[in-house]
Amino acid sequence: MAADDFKLTIHMVSSLDGYIAKKDNSVSWFNTADKYEPGVHVTEQDAQEFLKGIDCYLMGSRTYELALELSKSYGWVYGDVPTIVLTHRNLPVERSNVEIYSGDLDTLLNERLKPSYRNVWLVGGAELASDFIRLNLADEIRQSILPIILGDGTPFYNQIGQEKALHLKNTTAYKSGMVELLYEIKK
Predict the structure, then answer these.
(1) Rounded CA separation 97/79 (Å)
(2) How far, rounded to the nearest angstrom, does the alpha carbon of residue 91 sit from its chain's CA centroid?
(3) Boundaries of every domain in the chain
(4) For 114-135, how does the pLDDT look when each residue is reduced to its tens digit (9 = 90+)?
């Protein structure tokens, strides 16, 4: 597989004011919806077809713990796609497609991910996203903004500590009032 075929996307859902979770780490506000008639309507089939293109997920420990908790009510949303949890903690692994990784991020990217996958999504959390941005390991950011202002919580962009130029690749407004911004990270 050519290196040009590989893409690491940071995907986050945030409030308009840039928070990805409330202070208590809850994401109940993810159900926030509005009505925007000119927006794009996405069917379940459209969503499933899109998700088939993702061949590996990365996430931090708190995102993993939240996903495990939510899976009790909604099922494991990442399906059978390989999922790598980046943490130094000893966490339970309940699925054969989930593994724990606690090493160097550059090594993970170049020795494990690039040779094996084409389309990798980092789906949380903020510290991990900041690390990938700061280390120039991510290729794009897909930020889905919900129609809500939280006023406080966990910020998406926290402690990056450097300016980072982006190129807007696409915007999509949905009927639910969510707006998705897709940026390429300039390197």
Answers:
(1) 9
(2) 20
(3) 3-22+33-185
(4) 999 999 999 988 999 999 999 9
10 Å CB burial of residue 14 (0-12, 13-18, 19+) is buried
Rg of the chain's alpha carbons, rounded to an integer?
16
Asked whether the beta carbons of 145 and 16 are under 8 A apart, the reply is: yes
Whether this model's pTM surpasses 0.70: yes
Centre a 10 Å sphere on the Cβ of residue 157 and count the other Cβ atoms it contains: 16
* 3-22+33-185 classified as CATH 3.40.430.10: yes
pLDDT tens digits, one per residue of 54-86: 999 999 999 999 999 989 998 999 999 999 999
Q: Among 8, 15, 50, 31, which Cα is nearest to 157's?
A: 15
The residue whose two tokens read 């979770």 is 21
Distance (Å, rounded) from C-alpha 63 to C-alpha 184? 24
140, amino acid identity: E
Backbone angles phi, psi at 65, to 5 degrees: -60, -40
For residue 74, which of 17, 30, 135, 130 has the smallest C-alpha distance? Answer: 30
Q: What is the pLDDT of residue 3?
A: 53
